[in-house]
Amino acid sequence: MIDSASFLWIMAGVFEYNTQMPCAPEALQGYRATSSLLVGLLFVICTLLLLSYKLNTKTAIEMAQSLANRRKKAAA
């Protein structure tokens, strides 16, 4: 709900979106710009988060052992 509202706020504030004329050229340009910029921004954020998460073989083995220990404790 917040995501839809924020999209419409951006459209109204930056591209002068009018609900009476949703197919106006400015609105279509706004759809394209907002959707591509938003997707690009989310891609950059996800990439940065993945780069900061250190996952290697040692970490994966530690996680697997930890999960195996938890399962043993839960089964007992």
In short:
The protein contains three helices and no strands. With 76 residues, it is mostly helical. Helix 1 crosses helix 2 (25-52).
Q: How would you explain this protein's 3D organization?
A:
It is a single chain. This protein has 76 residues and is mostly helical. The chain has one domain (2-75). The chain contains 3 helices and no strands. The protein has helices spanning 2-15, 25-52, 57-75. Helix 1 crosses helix 2 (25-52). The longest helix is centred in the middle third of the chain and has 28 residues, at 25-52. The mean pLDDT is 83.
Number of structurally distinct domains:
1
Quote the distance from N terminus to C terminus. Answer: 44 Å
Which residue ranges are poorly predicted, with pLDDT under 50 across at least 5 consecutive positions? Answer: none
Rg to the nearest angstrom? 22 Å
Q: From the helix content, strand content and strand pairing, which structural class follows?
A: mainly alpha
Helicity level: over 70%
Helix and strand run: HHH
Proportion of strand residues: under 5%
Give the overall pLDDT as a whole number: 83
Q: What's the helix count?
A: 3
**Can you count the beta strands?**
0
